Model the fold of this input.
Amino acid sequence: MSLTAPACPTCQAALQFTHSGELDTWVCPQGHGVALTLSEAYELAQDDELKELWTRARAATGAPGGRPSPISGKPMVAVSLAYDPDETEGTPPSGSVDVDVDVAEEVIWFDAGELDKLPADLPKPETSAEELAAINEIRRRYGEAIVADDHDRTSHELAERIHGVFSRLVK
Done:
C-alpha cells in the first residue's frame, strides 16, 4: 500500500505540510489555499462556529459533489461558515466564508485568504471566584456522598456478616 501526499483541490499539486506553534496545516505551493483537520481547526477558530460548520457539513453529505478532497479525492461539500467577532454564543454573525469539507476525512479546505477572515479563538476566561466556589461545593458534596455510600455499604456488609455468624451459632 502506498500513501500519497494530500493534493490541492484546485491544481492537484502535492500539499506541503507546515507546522507553526501547535497548528499543523497542508498548504498549496501555488497559493490556492490550506487544508486543516477538524481537530487542528479547533486550535485556531472559535468552537461554536466550528460546531455549526460540522453540523451543516454532515447534513449536506450526499449532496451533489463539489471540489475533490485533498485527502481522498472524493467530492467535498461546500458549506457556509458564519462567524462572529467574539466568544459570546448567540451573537449575530458578522461575516461568513464558504469552505469545502470532507466529512469522512474530517478535513476543511480554505481557499487563499478565507482562513484569514475568521476571528482568532480567544483564550478561555479565568474561572471566577463564584464559579470556583460552586465547583468546590459540588466536589465537597460529591465526596460526602461517596463516603456516606461507602459507610452504608460497609455497615450493611458488617450486619450481614454478624447475622451469618449468629445464624450458624444458633443452629
